[in-house]
Amino acid sequence: MNKRKYENSSNSSKKIKIKTKEIEDLETIEKTLSKEQKEIIDIVINQKKSLFFTGPGGCGKSYTLNFLIKKLYSVYEKHTIGVTASTALAALNIGGGTLHGFTGIGIMDKSFDDTITSIMDKTFIYNRLMGLKILIIDEISMINAETFDFIDEITRFIRSNDKPFVWNLIVEEYVYLKRMFRQQNEYFINGLNNLRLGKIDKDFLKYVKNLDREITYEDGCEPTKLFSTNKEVNICNMNKLNDIKGKTFMFKAQDWSVAQGNKSNNNYKRSHKDLIDWLDKSTLAEENLYLKIGADVLYLWNDKDDNRLVNGTEGKIVGFRSGKTVFREGVPDKVLSHSLIPIVKFKNIEEEVEVKQEIWQKKNNEGVLMVTRKQLPLKLKYGISIHKSQGMTIPMLEIDCKKVWQSEQIYVAFSRSVDPKNLRVKNFRAEKVKANEKVIKFMNEKFKNIF
Ligand SMILES: Nc1ncnc2c1ncn2[C@@H]1O[C@H](COP(=O)(O)OP(=O)(O)OP(=O)(O)O)[C@@H](O)[C@H]1O
Ligand SMILES: [Mg+2]
């Protein structure tokens, strides 16, 4: 990764903005916590117990975690606290990394033995697993049992310790946060709470249907659009790209698979296309990536040399470099995309960054490399998938429910909103509202009289 300061860059003089949140005094934040949020801090800091806490989207789970983390840093050595979440975006929200990255299991494309070897090779991962005392995981609902079991086995082996590392066996306390912070509108909050349980009455259905109307925001601001499929996200992003003046460049990924070329050598009974599709499903790296100057992008890689540059970091394409020439306004027609290196100004990094290609790979269960993709770790960011939006607070929001394929998606999407005045809902259908019976049963068992 090359980072350069360009003399003519209008951004280079900007100072790194330190988030006010980060410099706020612990005592000041503590005063804002509700009684139930304070109870969580007490259980961890004073009672030194492990706990599972939950509550509706916007009740301040991540807010409480942010405070708890600061508090823990003031009590324990920093390297003994693991701050993680299931997705990179959710992790950014609490100043941590993904659980997968933190524990060294990556995208789980390696066998048990290979994962152990790779952790042993990376001293920093080995050391942090050995030194870990407290592990924090936000958005835990997106981590499945298989992943937990794998992490458990790996860490028990690494630490030569048979005690469960992460598993509900070690949860000692359960707390449910009831008070809502993200939204103020009582009618909306009540409707959302019902949606969470898979219920919707006629009145709220009518209310939601009426949320499908044009909204004009001040200063020409545009809402963030949520979709349930990546295909819809891609179409939205392409339309936005077309609205920006200038030439669009297509960056084609270099894909390779074990089934490519000589078919007689292919003992794996999977076609090249099948393997590419397999890779496609597990990576955000695009086969055909379209970029232009002025486009808003997300970074898709965890840079090992720079922990500010992680999967989910937001930025804008401010130019391209071709050889020694830097283009900031436009790129002449004769210049081809394969010679171009995107220059990106990321929100949290003062200097501009030249983004280089990275390699994604997938191995089969025996650890044999099956397929790889070499591509720029960038993606357009105008539309977001509901899956990725978990944990976000989105004041100006537009949700398209057309292709919703999982019942919980509706609640996740709706609960991102702050005020229904700034929420547009398209293609809503009541039959999509369902809740997982197992989850309701679990919640009823653990949190009596909540529902
Ligand atoms: N005690 C508090 N005082 C002031 N604001 C708060 C408090 N708790 C939460 N908030 C605010 O409420 C909003 C929602 O909080 P947060 O994102 O932590 O909710 P969450 O429960 O993690 O939601 P989700 O389930 O969507 O991840 C944020 O804007 C946060 O700053
Ligand atoms: Mg959260």
UniProtKB/TrEMBL annotation:
<dbReference type="GO" id="GO:0043139">
    <property type="term" value="F:5'-3' DNA helicase activity"/>
</dbReference>
<dbReference type="InterPro" id="IPR010285">
    <property type="entry name" value="DNA_helicase_pif1-like_DEAD"/>
</dbReference>
<protein>
    <recommendedName>
        <fullName>ATP-dependent DNA helicase</fullName>
        <ecNumber>5.6.2.3</ecNumber>
    </recommendedName>
</protein>
<dbReference type="GO" id="GO:0005524">
    <property type="term" value="F:ATP binding"/>
</dbReference>
<comment type="similarity">
    <text>Belongs to the helicase family.</text>
</comment>
<dbReference type="GO" id="GO:0006281">
    <property type="term" value="P:DNA repair"/>
</dbReference>
<dbReference type="GO" id="GO:0016787">
    <property type="term" value="F:hydrolase activity"/>
</dbReference>
<dbReference type="InterPro" id="IPR051055">
    <property type="entry name" value="PIF1_helicase"/>
</dbReference>
<feature type="domain" description="DNA helicase Pif1-like DEAD-box helicase">
    <location>
        <begin position="33"/>
        <end position="165"/>
    </location>
</feature>
<dbReference type="GO" id="GO:0006310">
    <property type="term" value="P:DNA recombination"/>
</dbReference>
<keyword id="KW-0378">Hydrolase</keyword>
<keyword id="KW-0227">DNA damage</keyword>
<keyword id="KW-0547">Nucleotide-binding</keyword>
<dbReference type="InterPro" id="IPR027417">
    <property type="entry name" value="P-loop_NTPase"/>
</dbReference>
<dbReference type="Pfam" id="PF05970">
    <property type="entry name" value="PIF1"/>
</dbReference>
<keyword id="KW-0233">DNA recombination</keyword>
<dbReference type="GO" id="GO:0000723">
    <property type="term" value="P:telomere maintenance"/>
</dbReference>
<keyword id="KW-0347">Helicase</keyword>
<keyword id="KW-0067">ATP-binding</keyword>
<keyword id="KW-0234">DNA repair</keyword>
